[in-house]
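INTERNAL AUDIT FORM
Audit reference: QA-55
Scope: verify that the stored structure record matches its stored sequence.
Auditor: D.O.
Record contents follow.
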Amino acid sequence: MSTFVPAEWGPHRAIWLGFPSDADLWCDDLAPARDEVADLARALAGPGREHVLLMASGDEALRAAQARLGAVQGVELIAGAFGDIWLRDTGPIFLKDQAAGFLFNGWGGKYVLPGDDTLAERLALHAEKPFRNNAFVLEGGALDHDGAGTVLTTRQCLLHPNRNPGWTEAAAEAALASALGARKVLWLDDGLANDHTDGHVDNLARFVAPGVVVCPIAWGEGDVNGGVYDAAARSLARMTDAEGRPLRVVRVPSPGLIPDEDGKAIPASHMNFIIANGAVIIPDYGTPSAAEALDALRPLFPGREMIRLPSGAILTGGGSFHCITQQEPE
């Protein structure tokens, strides 16, 4: 394969966005989560930015999306069946000239929902991209890409026996090279505590430019992931990319401890930002760290508007902005 997964900061033809649709999954958080997704869609579709393809599952959800966004220029409503809104994981990974699909098993069998395992091919068909399905389990949020064949991931997720039993690093690297043109895989160890994705890297570390990676630093008291953040930063500082460049590591404040109703840490992360055409949008979980995180990221994205938006209701479903989007490169 001669092409790689384009960097997220490259130009997009469109960006997919999932609309909360299943009342049984979202319960009391359904309406506020819909409002947060609608605000995100408006920001993505701002002047000169994205063509937003907002997918809603079922007639009621489509009506709710229409009521919030039907008059917004740049937002196209798409009816399509899916289990839940995590299109980063259930949709395809778009390369320059094709879309790659993978087996999807509900994050290791935790949440197996109708429609999720066929979504990648349907999105590729809508995008009019040749579709290649790969016979191994992978979610898009398990990887991050620099646009030149360097892939960032975690051992906790990619080598977890609930995905591809018996996989070694060598086997995973060969599979990613074949499916996505990966030239070099950079391995981190664990992801965030209590993450049902088993440690997706897009909550832990992200490429923001060639040779530049951001990862969190603990913020406030009681941040249970402080050791994980520091271990990732130390590992990254010793790594080089596929071009042989040493990585520059930039630390960004974490949201700190955000407990659920039982006092258990929720895997919230400002790393779940979206790099959009003309903007970077980061999730705000209601902690003062959001403003600090935005300020830390700002120098890395000259020429892009820096936006933070509430994501507390979306977080109750298990993820945030990056998890519910998937970009189509130009």
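Auditor finding: record pair retrieved intact. The CA atoms of residues 156 and 307 lie 31 Å apart.
Action required: none
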